[in-house]
Structures are given as structure tokens and as C-alpha cells.
Amino acid sequence: MDSVTLVCTASLIAGGLYWFVCVFGSAERKGKHASQLSGGSIDREKVQDNYNQYWSFFKKPKQIEKTENVPAFVDTFYNLVTDIYEWGWGQSFHFSPAIDGKSNLESTKIHEQMAVDLIKVKPGQKILDAGCGVGGPMRAIAAHSGCNVVGITINEYQVSRAKAHNKKAGLDHLCDVVCGNFLEMPFEDNSFDGAYSIEATCHAPKLEDVYGEIFRVLKPGALYVSYEWVTTELYRGDDPEHVEVIQGIERGDALPGLRSYSDIPEVAKKVGFEVVKELDLAKPPSKPWWTRLKMGRVAYWRNHIVVMVLETIGVAPKGTIDVHQMLFKTADYLSRGGETGIFSPMHMILLKKPKQEES
Ligand SMILES: C[S@@+](CC[C@H](N)C(=O)[O-])C[C@H]1O[C@@H](n2cnc3c(N)ncnc32)[C@H](O)[C@@H]1O
Question: Is 341 left (phi over 0), alpha (psi -120 to 50) or beta?
Fold first, then answer.
């Protein structure tokens, strides 16, 4: 091979690799390139250890049930998955029903805007996003409502990602993000005009702890809406297949234990809320939320090749392949949970903190 052919071939390979990793393998407005995958706030040489440690929690299930261990366990999980979520899924870390004629991004936004419409807040008012991720919902909600949104997440790395996205979107004057535990929030009593949480309170070991905190920081008369991950009325604890699916979801999503849909209003009432409305948004006439996961199988294999190459050549930290594989297995459990109807990630509950004179 002469030198001209060699240079041309090498350039083609390098160009193709760049395109595969940075263009094809990157995001429709996701904010992360494959070449930037990291372990969040974890040093790159400790990613594999942290992944192993994450799994070791499940060898001692009693340990994760202890309230004090759960936030650290959830924090580790989000260090491991945040970049992969952003790269492979987007800036909103939740599901939404498919809508005919709408893209995934549009359906996601509609699902988020519905949350703020339900809590009936006005422009300029202050609302809380409990468990805000990297702030996809927060930005859609701030832009739609004109409210000031304060998000809280347990994960420091997500705070930096959310702040960078807020600035880039020109929404940092409306959106603020705090690193903290929603089981003991650093906010004053009666200080928010409304609150929402999207697929986040499922990480609380005891729902009453996070609902109690949200109740405390809301002004009397204010509304709170949550999209809860639950097992539905179709779930049977004596069916081994149901148990396998639900355990698979818990293990691959850092959940201390999924709750039954029927427990949610009971806990809400116990901490003092009035239940205004409750609806499983996954049920017909909604279109399935899990089709996006099933259609993502091809993208998964493409991404998995990218991850294997990047970890092998030392661009992505060791452990990234394992984390990516864990998420793929979990996607399968989630799809099975959706298809069988035993699991919903969007059991909506709208709650009101009573006005003082009513309580
Ligand atoms: C599935 S993500 C959803 C994020 C966001 N709501 C969205 O839809 O994009 C769950 C979020 O809950 C947060 N979270 C879990 N446990 C928490 C805790 N104890 N305190 C604060 N945030 C927590 C995680 O850090 C993560 O940001």
C-alpha cells in the first residue's frame, strides 16, 4: 500500500470513528457525547469499584431498607448512570405515554407541562422540584409556567449538569438547583407556592418521610403533584414472574422497594395532605410508555459497541460497560412490567396542603 492510500485509509477510519462516537452515537439535544462518558463525581479509576459496591447492597437487602443508607446508595447509582442517561435517553430522566404524531421529546414535554398545570401556579411564584435530575422537567416547566423553580437532587454531579443546562437554555434566572436530601430539605417551612416530583420519590425508603418534608415546605393551600412508580392491582406477590420483574426494576434503578399504588394516598393523608385527584397515567386511553424502550434495542446495541470501544481504548472509565449492560437488562424488566400491566411509572397523585383554617 503506498503512502497516499495509507493516509487516506487512516483518515477514513479516524473520520468514521469520530462520526460514530461523536455524531451518530451522540444525542438529539441530549447534551453528552459518548466520548465524554464519566462516572459523575466518582474518580474514573473508582467507577468499577463503585459499580461492584452498588451491587453488593443487594446481597444485604436489609441494609438498603435502612433509611440512613439509602441516599448514599442512590447517590452512587446516579454517579454511575447520569452521563449514560443523558447520552442515551435525554435530559429528562422519566417516561411518558407515547402520543401519535409526536416525537419522544414532544411527548416528554407534554407530560412535564401537565404536572405544572395541575398545581395551578402563576408566573413569578416559587415551586419545588423534588428529585430534579439534570433538570429536563424543570426547564420545560419554568418556560411553560413562568414560575421560579427550585430543584433538589441528592447527586452533586447532577447539580453541575443541571446548572450548565439551565444557563445554556437561558433559563438560569428562573431555575435554581440545590444538592441535598429530600428527606430533610434545607428549605423554610411554608415557603413554596407549589411542588412536583417526577419519578423520584420512589427512591425514598419511607414515602411518609419525603411527603412529610414536602408538606412542611409548602404554603397552606398549595398543591403538590407526584408521578409515582408503583405496582398495580394486577401485581401478584405469589407469581414468580411478577416478583422477578419487580425485583429486576428495583435492582437496576436503585429502589429500596416498590410500593403498591394503594399505599400512596394512605401515606399522603397520614402526613396531612388532602387527596385532590389520583389517576394512573399509564392506563388506556394513554398509549404505551414502554414502546420507546423496546424501540431503543437497536440503539442499545449500537451504543454498547461504542461503550466497549471507548472503555477498551481508555476513553471511558473501567466499569462503564457493566453499567451500560445493567441498564439494558433493567430496560427489559421495565418493558415487561409495562406490557403485563403490573407496574406503572406514572401513577399520578395530586395533593393539597389544607389552608390553616381548614385543618
Ligand atoms: C429518575 S430521576 C428523575 C429526575 C427528574 N425528576 C426527571 O424526571 O428528569 C430521580 C431523581 O431523584 C433524585 N433523588 C433520589 N433520592 C433523593 C433524595 N433522597 N434526595 C434528593 N434527591 C433524590 C435523584 O438524585 C434523581 O435526580
Answer: left
